[in-house]
Design a protein that fits this description.
This protein has 142 residues and is an all-beta fold. 3% of the residues lie in helices and 39% in strands. This is Cupin type-2 domain-containing protein.
Amino acid sequence: MLDRTGTLFSHVKPADTDFKGGGLRDFFLYRDLGVAEATHGKVIAHLVKANLPPDGGTGWHRHEADFQIVIMTKGWAKFMYEDKVTLVEAGDVVHQRPGIRHYLFDYSPDMEYLEIVSPADFKSVDVDPVCDIPPPTPWPEA
C-alpha cells in the first residue's frame, strides 16, 4: 500500500529521547515522541511528568487547538474543567474539547501522562478565573 499522506513513519524507543524541561510548564518534564516531526506539525505527542510540587498549578487557561487528549499513565491529577473538579487517575482518558477553560491544580509526585494535541504548535491562553480552586495535596517531605 502506498503512503499518500505526506507524513513520515516514526518509531521512538524510551532510550531515544529524554525527559526535559523547557516545555509549557516549568514544574513538568516533557519527553518528545517524534510525532510532531513525523506529521510536519499537524500533531504533537509527548509524555509529561511531575517535576516539582503543584504550587499554584497551571492557572486558568484554554488551548487554541483542534484536538487534545490526555491519557494518565501513572499517578493522578486533579483538574478544574470549567466549574467541576475532575480526578484523573492512571488508566483514565480525557478528551478536552476545544477551548474548554481548565486548571490543573493538584497532582501526585509520580504523575505521568501522554498528551496528544493538534496542531503541534497549539497555544495556551490565560483566561479569567471560573471559580475558586481547592488547595493541593502537600507532597511528602523528601
